Amino acid sequence: MRLDRGITSVIIGIAITFGQPEIAVTLTAQDVSNIAKQITVVISGPKLGSGVIIHQQGDTYSVLTNGHVVDEAGTYTVQTRDRSTYEVKSNLVQRLPGVDLAVLKFTSSKKYNIATIGNSDAATEGTTVYVSGAPEPVQGIEARTVLVLRGEIVGTNSQPQEGYVLIYNNNTHRGMSGGPVLDENGHLIGIHGRGARDNDGQKVGFNLGIPIKIFTASKTGSNLGVTTQNPPITQVPPKSFTDPSSSVPLIGRPRTIDGSEGTAGFGCPGRRC
């Protein structure tokens, strides 16, 4: 009888172990920053901006960015986390109708991380978000460097234009347009692209992004096989992770981009950021 009871206890213990849900891993701000820097690219050319790697098929990678970042004719350069550069002709850029998004592709035999698509519907007021991108050079920061800025969702736009629904208080700067908006699990929930401004053209402290759901629901997103899902909690990256952006400057040069100069000296009249 004692043996039977012992076996029963073992069976119950195993059942409890397999029946318990997986414990979610909470990422630190540094963890999310490391994830962001792996998937963020720096875009240079007729205009400057940022982007995020969203898909890979063979040696072809797809980058999602803002339409206004790549809407001028010419050759654009995509720079990845390892400082490799890839040229993309503007006539090969695919722009989405009715929304400020575009997809450009580059070919490489190297292995790059792909963004994990999150649930932008869960980005409600108070949700922590991170915006990643490489601002244009300014005094004191002469080379473009990928920055990951933390903030939170403060609301949604009741009358969105070109897809700009998300409103957050992250302190973004010109050159970060097209960069990813990540949730606290490091999942892609939006694309950053605008800074709200008053009638004098001054930033008011709020910025806007396009929910990733708009892209995944589009024909372009469907053709790439990029879909909205409920991804698992991202595991904490190894402590040995090193980010090459910490010491090596990025390519790029100071340049006026869409909306970066306006009348009477005020910036971003088109509310680009």
UniProtKB/TrEMBL annotation:
Gene3D superfamilies (alphabetical): Trypsin-like serine proteases
Record's protein name: Peptidase S1
Gly residues biased stretches: 262-273
Organism annotation: Nostoc minutum NIES-26
InterPro entries found in the cross-reference section: Peptidase_S1_PA, Peptidase_S1_PA_chymotrypsin
Residue ranges of the region described as Disordered: 229-273
UniProt cross-references to Pfam families, sorted A to Z: Trypsin_2 (PF13365)
Superkingdom as given in the UniProt entry: Bacteria
